[in-house]
Amino acid sequence: MIHLFYYGYSINYSFENNSNIYNYNFNDFIFGTSPIRSYERSKRLLPSFTGNFYNYLRSTNVYNQNNKINNFTYFISYSDNQDVSSMLPEGTDADYLDSMFFKDNENSSSGGYIVNDIKEVIQGDKIIDFSKEDNSIHEDINNTYIENFVEGDNIVIEKENDANIEKIYHTSSDILGVLREIYSVVYRIEIDLDRIIYNAGAWLNKLATHSKDETIRVVVPNKVIMEDNFHKLKTQSEEHLGIMYQGVDFLMFVGTLYAELDNPEVIVLNIPEISLYDHVLIKETTFNFTNFMTEDLPFLSTIHNIYLTAVDLVFLCILIKFAEKVYDKYTGNGGN
Amino acid sequence: MILEGLFSFIGNIYLGIIGLINIPFMPNDVLESAKNFLELLFSNASLLGLFVRISTLKTIATIFLAILTFKVALKIYSLYRFLRSTI
Q1: pLDDT < 50 stretches in chain A
Q2: pTM here?
Q3: N or C: which end of chain A has fewer CB within 10 A?
Q4: Per the CB < 8 Å rule, is A226 touching B53?
Q5: Nearest to A273 by CA among A263, A265, A282
Q6: In a mutagenesis test of the A interface, which of B56, B65, B71 is the best target, namely the one with the most A β-carbons within 10 Å?
Q7: What sign for the dihedral angle of Cα A194, A198, A203, A204?
């Protein structure tokens, strides 16, 4: 039996600091040059692949670099329950075996957390089926027997349920994170529905066998699928609704300006140059009120703060009075 | 896939409806002028901060809008009650 080991270290990757959310595909997992994020139950993460697997493997450097596919993926041949620590490539820390990211599953010959079976592997020009003595009979990953498997035949590796799935944790205060979470749930539902339609039996089976599975989330694709549709709706609305669309657009513009308003840190008065018939009456002047008050006249700054608080209080009183008036008017307790 | 299909379906209905409507545009110059004017006002609003805190103004404006909305809502409700009592 040949086991495909792919291990990765848990990169301390902060999704909050990067808008790119990875959507792994087959290449990323098996032949990618980037570190692979490790997962629990990564056996389920074998991505879908349709095509000529033989040629695919041949295109890699799997043969000539100590079974190394990339820095994080190796082919290692070993028997079930065999200690594979001595077979790890040089420089690989055997402690990985004890970590959750590099751990064989004792209860499964097909590997556990990070191990996948490859029933065939290429040696030279031949495809060897290590599970069979008779090499003319091969079994692909879907347990379908292919006789006289030769170069050029296509192998289809079905995507496991919940492939391209990653558990993403975000800070709950991050609105973007919450949106991703919501989208991930929607995407998950979409995947499930898709699977129900195309593979209802397999889905039910998986539901039964993996009913205890948890911590499954979906990676949000880089590009939201519906982006184009929204764009189309927007342009069409703009074309047909004319002044109505412009009105809404203008209202949003004003809303944005309003939302961006904030207490000024520095109050600066800019006076433009005023001239008459080539005679400059007033030069262009800039006067920084904040500096003036804090540095030159700190006493004035205190008075200014008291003034601002008083103005706040006045506004508050006016508002309460106004609210009271409106309330009285419509509840019949007086007023006009 | 299903969600995408559903979205496309609703989107197509919407596009079909608005395809029947053709409302003219307001001249762009007018719109741009209004936008420029507002931008000028808002960008120089910091000077107003000398007299009133901007955050106070924003809060007041929001509450004022809420009260106005309350008034309008009550008027609509009164109209509804009137119509209901007469019909």
Answers
A1: 1-73, 75, 77-80, 92-174, 177, 203-205, 208-225, 335-336
A2: 0.38
A3: C
A4: no
A5: A282
A6: B56
A7: positive
Residue A260 and residue B42: Cβ atoms within 8 Å?
A: yes
**A319 with B71: Cβ contact below 8 A:** no
Residues on chain B bordering chain A, Cβ-to-Cβ distance under 8 angstroms? 1-4, 7-8, 11, 14-15, 18-19, 21-26, 31, 34-35, 38-39, 42, 45-47, 49-58, 60-61, 63-64, 67, 70-71, 74, 78
Q: Is the ipTM of this complex over 0.90?
A: no
Which residues, including other chains, have CB under 8 Å from residue B8's CB and lie 6 or more apart?
A: A229
What six digits make up the tokens of A118? Answer: 């490859």
For residues A46 and A115, give the distance between their C-alpha atoms in angstroms, rounded to a whole number: 10
Is the pLDDT assigned to residue B69 strictly greater than 80? Answer: yes
Distance CA A211, CA A209 (A): 6
Q: Which two tokens stand for residue B27?
A: 């001249």
Rg (CA), chain B: 22
Measured between beta carbons, the chain B residues lying within 8 angstroms of A250 are 31, 34-35
Chain A, window 280-319: residues with a beta carbon less than 8 angstroms from a chain B beta carbon: 289, 308, 311-312, 315, 319
Give how far A312 is from chain B: nearest CA, Å: 6
Tell me the pLDDT tens digit for each residue of A67-87: 444 444 454 544 445 555 555
3-state secondary structure (DSSP) of residue A49: strand
Q: Which helix (H) or strand (E) holds A246?
A: helix A227-260
Report CA torsion sign: A93, A99, A105, A107. Answer: positive
**CA of A240: which chain B residue's CA is closest?**
B22
**Three-state DSSP string of A54-103:** HHHHHCCCCCCCCCEEECCEEEEECCCCCCCHHHCCCCCCHHHHHCCCCC
Structure tokens at A91: 């420089």
Q: Which two tokens stand for residue A213?
A: 């599975």
Q: How far apart are CA A104 and CA B32, in angstroms?
A: 66
